[in-house]
Amino acid sequence: MISKRTDYLSWDEYFMGLSLLSSYRSKDPNTQVGACIVNENNKIMSVGYNGFPIGCSDDEFPWDREGEPYDTKYPYVCHAELNAILNNDGASLQGCRIYVALFPCNECAKAIIQCGIKEVVFLSDKYNNTPMNRASKRLFNAAGVRLRKLVPKRDSILIDFDESKV
Length: 166
Known about the structure:
By secondary structure, this protein is an alpha/beta fold. It has helices at 11-23, 80-87, 106-114, 131-143; strands at 34-38, 44-49, 97-102, 119-124, 146-149. Helix content is 26%, strand content 16%. The longest helix has 13 residues, at 11-23. 28% of the residues are buried.
């Protein structure tokens, strides 16, 4: 009798993988972030990535990280978490979890809490202990949102478009 595969992706690796794959849609030259929201039944509710709002040309707005705030990307870019929340088709996100490679900023934390997401699964907390990061954690803790750093069993997932391997 043939046994099933044992090297399949866990749910956490699968959803974080979708988050990372979504980040490849971002045109940001410095930081690409994706997000994937799933419900308690492991059904995907929405995905998103960081970029400009619909109708705002990414050729006409700045991608700069430094300079006068008006001339940088920061007042214009919509973060992956917010895009995933806004890309949802209107179903309730109450009780869902969000997978995101980079720990959410305080602005995204507010949106995550407000729509009822109850768990944030992240890979990196590279801005740990900055004022905005501490504010995010304070908000999440006050709202009872669970925070979980994902420690995947594998370092990478290869996606191969070679049709002969399908």
